[in-house]
Amino acid sequence: MNAPLFSASNLRKSFGGIAAVDDVSLCIQAGQVIGLIGPNGAGKTTCFNLITGLYTPDAGQLAFKGKPYKPASPHHVAQMGLARTFQNIRLFKSMTALENVAVGMHAKTSQGVLGAILRTPAQRREEIKVQKQAMHWLHYVGIGAYSNHLAGQLSYGDQRRLEIARALASEPALLALDEPAAGMNATEKLKLRELLLQIRHDGKSILLIEHDVKLVMGICDEVTVLDYGKVIAQGTPTQVQQSPAVIEAYLGGLHHAESRE
Ligand SMILES: Nc1ncnc2c1ncn2[C@@H]1O[C@H](COP(=O)(O)OP(=O)(O)OP(=O)(O)O)[C@@H](O)[C@H]1O
């Protein structure tokens, strides 16, 4: 098998003596959709934050594109080719959908900030290119018609799509999505499923945290299940669905939820 696109080995992170992520390893091959699931408080977001540079691991190693990977900051992570969305939508609500996508692309343009201030001809050409690309990504996620709408006025589902467009605009090799279906209705979830399959079809890998188990099982090549910070199952959707530890973690969910309060 080829070297994986991304791997995390034996990651650990504790908060105040409580292990939020405890010896977690996972691997993503190029072109795969990998799911990270588990009950509330299982450690999924902490894992994501370790992978995307928001937290520093207490122990463990990361590798990306065949090299050791030490995410220094979210900006560094984006430059390396890893883009993420957030559980709580983080958009510039009073900017248009187009501006939200374009703003993330400016950091990567060759003219940089000085060019933008001086409004040189080269900067104007680049601006047109950025707008065109931003428009492309809005159409790609299915909200091209709303390019001039303020982000804050879009429906919840469309705001989530806009976040995905903004992440895709940085042309990542790996797209990390933190609960993209949260708050979506059934129709929006179906459309999201189609979009994620399209993204995979177009050659990108996806790491997906999601509470909607049906969505995860329907599109993921492999799934890692966390509970109390530990990996309790790892494998294809069929394999993990049959795991007694997973069944217990989910069916016992009520007891877990109560004991975690
Ligand atoms: N910054 C923090 N400080 C202290 N404890 C934290 C912090 N972040 C997470 N935790 C704790 O770590 C554990 C794992 O939390 P995490 O948010 O990673 O779980 P999760 O699986 O993403 O949960 P959810 O599905 O509810 O989002 C929880 O017990 C949580 O309270």
From TrEMBL:
Keywords in alphabetical order: ATP-binding, Cell inner membrane, Cell membrane, Membrane, Nucleotide-binding, Transport
CDD domains linked to this entry: ABC_Mj1267_LivG_branched
Keyword Cell membrane applies: yes
ABC transporter domain: residues covered: 6-253
SMART domains attached to this UniProt entry: AAA (SM00382)
Single GO MF annotation: ATP binding
The keyword Nucleus is assigned to this record: no
SUPFAM superfamilies, alphabetized: P-loop containing nucleoside triphosphate hydrolases (SSF52540)
Protein's name in the database: ABC transporter ATP-binding protein
Origin species: Limnobacter profundi
